[in-house]
Specification:
Layout lengths: L14 E3 L5 E3 L3 E5 L3 H7 L9 E5 L4 E3 L3 E3 L7 E3 L1 E7 L15 E8 L2 E2 H9 L5 H4 L5 E3 L3 E2 H4 L6 E6 L2 E7 L7 H11 L7 E3 L7 E2 L5 E6 L5 E6 L4
Parallel strand pairs: 3-15, 5-11, 6-18
Antiparallel strand pairs: 1-2, 3-4, 7-10, 7-16, 8-9, 8-15, 9-12, 13-14, 13-17, 17-18
Length: 234
């Protein structure tokens, strides 16, 4: 039996470069909300003891290191959130905490770009966060460093600078829910698959950017991620 003919062109695959060569194919993008105590306090929302919750971004919202992000529509408060990203290389569900690191292929620096005004509107109306979080070019992700090359990232400094001035500084060990716990919690809700990326939350210091700004995220043991903000597209 012949394969069915496509009625439209094939959708482009989304990938992220891997240190040492090759690319990581992106299946889904998950993000952890409010995973550093100091960020919860600066945002003045939620209980510090709340369990983790997750939201998604479209996989074609990936932006690679060195790329430019147009200032998005529907916002006047476009903000950065520097984050550690997990790259899943082994599928699973109901994963035990003690086995969770076996499912990690590697780690990368990332940015959860946010239309903060739209996120606040959605929160106040008790609506989903998609309008504030899940838009075009909202998920910059740097080069993935495989565990085989750099080990696991359970501690180390994470910083974000805008135009050379440091705006965020945190420590991965300060995460309320650590890497194994994040994987275990998420795998209770969905089956994790090869190619999933998990953005793990941001420390305090989030803020707005404008066209012309350069953002650099640095995490100990990983390749830095650099993007630039451009004027809005016509």
């Amino acid at each position: 039996m012949s394969l069915a003919q496509r009625v439209l062109p094939a959708v482009d695959e989304t990938t992220v470069p891997v240190l040492g060569g090759g690319v990581f194919p992106v299946r889904r993008i998950y993000c952890v909300g409010r995973n550093y105590v100091d960020h919860i306090r600066e945002m003045k929302e939620a209980d510090e003891r709340d369990p983790p919750f997750f939201f998604q971004k479209p996989r074609d919202s990936i932006v690679q290191d060195g790329d430019t992000v147009p200032y998005p529509p529907l916002t006047s408060d476009f903000q950065f959130e520097g984050e550690l990203v997990l790259a899943i290389g082994k599928p699973g569900r109901q994963i035990a905490v003690e086995n969770a690191l076996d499912h990690v292929f590697g780690y990368a620096a990332g940015i959860d770009l946010t239309r903060r005004d739209r996120q606040r509107d959605a929160r106040d109306m008790r609506l989903p966060w998609e309008i504030g979080k899940s838009f075009d070019a909202s998920a910059p992700c740097g080069i993935v460093t495989p565990v085989s090359a750099g080990g696991h990232r359970t501690s180390g400094a994470i910083t974000l600078a805008v135009n050379g001035a440091e705006r965020q500084r945190g420590e991965l060990a300060q995460m309320i829910w650590n890497v194994p716990e994040i994987i275990a919690q998420l795998s209770r809700q969905v089956t994790l698959g090869i190619g999933d990326l998990i953005f793990t939350g941001t420390p305090a210091g989030v803020g707005a950017v404008v066209p012309g700004d350069e953002i650099v995220v640095t995490i100990d043991g990983l390749k830095p991620l650099t993007i630039a903000i451009a004027a809005p597209e016509n």
